[in-house]
Amino acid sequence: MLAQLTLRQQLTDMPGEGFEQLIHHLLSLRHPDFVPVRTHGNLGDMGADGLLLWDRVLWACYSPQTDDIGRVKRKFGSDLDKALAKRPGAFDTFRFAVNDLKGVHPELSVMMSEAQEKLRPRRVEHYGWHRLWNDVMRLDRIATEELLGRELPVQDRTYGIGLSDLETLLARLGEQRRTSEPLAVLPEVNKYKIEWNGLTGDVRGALIQGIGHSHLVERYYAGLGAPDEADRVAQGFRVYYDQVRADTDDQDKLWAALQEYILGNAAPSLNSMYCAWIVIAHFFQRCDVFDVPPDGWVPGTEDRSAA
What pLDDT score was predicted for residue 306? Predict the structure, then answer.
């Protein structure tokens, strides 16, 4: 789980060159027949970022972390045309890796369909987050640490978290709380809050795991003998969330920012990361972070954007 979260965070803002290097590194670890192709002078890369010799797969890499879909489409078309012109007998599959955790842009998907018709009997394949992660999961621990550039601590008691594990983090939050207007009356927790905020995948899983232990945070504040301490810390947490939210609506980035607010920017241990999830879950349940659905809203009965 730590490896997955680390990889997702790295991919979030990874530029094109970095993404291509990551794919080269991963495929070199996974496939002995992988040939990473570099550009050379006027030749360029001859329409290929990499080749699997035995399976006759030509790789092209894209990092479309941009609103300029026209640029991405031009690169796709250019690489495909160059591959057909300069490597016509070298591949049976044109596989492109896309650094977009949410999926493929609709216009690019249309180009994929058109390219598939153009290439028959060759195949066009999309290589996105799920296939990338599946390949990472097939690496051994040493290779995974090499790919991610960090140690992956393995502990016997993954879920053995107690109040003592949380005390240091909660005390730190008390020290870094921010000043702002007093907290408004908190709305009641809505059972559809997760669905309303569109929390899916890893973020949803981390939040649900944190909720299972969030009672420990309540116990901590109950034992302090300072009735307003929880609200004062929540105030700082909400202010920080609002600042991040002003810059992005991406739930993965919001979650990563909240986790960094709690843990700092140092690489967390597995135990401290779980503790951060518990703290975020506590403030989620208090309705200090993420949006509360309108009264009466039920998933599937009304378009979220129209509410």
Answer: 44
Checking if the pLDDT of 307 tops 50, the result is no
pLDDT, tens digit, 9 for 90 and up, residues 217-243: 887 777 777 767 777 777 777 888 888
Are the CB atoms for 81 and 48 separated by under 8 Å? no
Cα–Cα distance between 67 and 74 in angstroms, integer?
14
Task: Please report the pLDDT score of residue 183 as a whole number.
Answer: 45
If one counts every other C-beta atom within 10 angstroms of the C-beta of residue 15, the result is: 12
Contacts of 245 (CB under 8 A, 6+ apart): 254
At 4, list the tokens.
Answer: 């997955």
Output the CA torsion sign for 76, 77, 78, 83: positive
What CA–CA distances, in Å, run from 279 to 119, 135, 154, 200, 209?
52, 32, 22, 19, 11
β-strands 57-62, 93-98: how paired? parallel
Q: Is the pLDDT of residue 36 over 80?
A: yes
Q: Model's pTM, two decimal places?
A: 0.49
Count the Cβ atoms, other than its own, within 10 Å of residue 181: 7
The full set of domains in the chain, from first to last, is 2-148 (3.40.50), 163-297 (no CATH)
What is the band of 171 on the pLDDT scale with cuts at 50, 70, 90? low
Is the pLDDT confidence value at 266 over 70? no
